Amino acid sequence: MTTTPAIRGWCPGLHTPMEAADGWLARVRPPLGRLSAAQARQVARAAATHGNGLIELTSRGNLQLRGLTPDSARAFARDMLAAGLASNDAATEARRGLLLSPLAGIDPDAAPDAPDVIRALDAALAAAGTLRGLPAKFVIAVECGGHIPAGTLRADIVARATDTGWMVACGDRALACAGADVARMTVTLAHALAAMKPASRPLRDPALGRAAFARMGVVDTTAAPSARPDRPVLAGPLPGHAMGVMLPPGPIAAGMLDDIAQWCDRHGNGHMRIAPWRAIVLEQCDTPPALPGLLMQADDPRLRIWACIGTQGCACATRDVIADAHALAPDLPPGVSLHVSGCAKGCAHPAPADITLVAGPDGYGLCPHGRADNTPVDIGLSLAQIHPIVRGWSRRPTDPTHATPREN
Ligand code: SF4
């Protein structure tokens, strides 16, 4: 096992935990985005036994445990391997980090072959032992259509179900293909990118997609569809007798995951999906969980807020951004999104939000309609100054009172 101090761009995993202010953190990537209630309870138990009992749902649909030590991180990895929740080597585990639509195979309006596409892609990536050299945080997504709008999964390569079949998009280009060809096409594309040794990712440098297709000898690509910044709300009943539960900003206690797992066992089919939007989907469950702390109303403003661990667990932070995010929630106008970040790295939400606040030693910087690494239009703001700014915010994307963020 490799243990690594906090490094910008580093993506911690189960076998490659990362040091933070509250101890080491490690991630569990449920295979194919799905785990049984029994496995979820094992994760909850392990968080309490090996870590500090706090669990975060990451923007990639992973479960992140905090407060480990190098020794307990090793024990945690052993437990997760025994639970069937990981590959047994770090390289394979990293390659299989897919970002998946949580309703694949559940939603009757989604592509019926989506589960086959996902399984084939997972197997192809597991077998792609020579696939090395991709940029840190490189990720592949599978969108299967139906209830979850196309474009909500942001990734370097996106396999997306369309009206006529599938497409594989990378950067600014896309190629139509059959479902049976998605895995091969995606892995070939990933190899082409890796061979180019890019310093950036197609998500940040869309021209890399065109270059990768060209390297494969593919010229008949089309323009890749644009992404949608809004995330779907998965609170309450979902298509296919699924039940969505969403979690508040910040980590949850291991006991909450245990409670959700018990509900899943009693009222569902004993399986759940971890969604990339701080949500858990319970399969075959028609009874909304009556559990404290879950966000079950679609208009709850906390569904539109992102916050990282802040001073509760990260040495880079200067403020308890989770507490500040909760304090600002009642002020948030309908439809407005808010990202409260402990620093410019913006771990909780790499995409733009209507309001992005970045903590600094002298107060918050304000990045309207931007990301945490944009240049703030105002700095040194206290929470007292921010409350009225948030209350009066308009969702107009070109609000003349707020500068357009710099694109990095
Ligand atoms: S964004 Fe938050 S969690 Fe990430 S490095 Fe900065 S303070 Fe730490």
Automatic annotation (TrEMBL):
Coiled coil: none
UniProt GO molecular function: 4 iron, 4 sulfur cluster binding; heme binding; metal ion binding; precorrin-3B synthase activity
Listed EC numbers: 1.14.13.83
Chain ranges of the Nitrite/Sulfite reductase ferredoxin-like domain: 22-82, 241-282
Keywords, comma-separated and alphabetical: 4Fe-4S, Heme, Iron, Iron-sulfur, Metal-binding, Oxidoreductase
Pfam families: NIR_SIR_ferr
Protein name listed in UniProt: Precorrin-3B synthase
Source taxonomy: Bacteria, Pseudomonadati, Pseudomonadota, Alphaproteobacteria, Acetobacterales
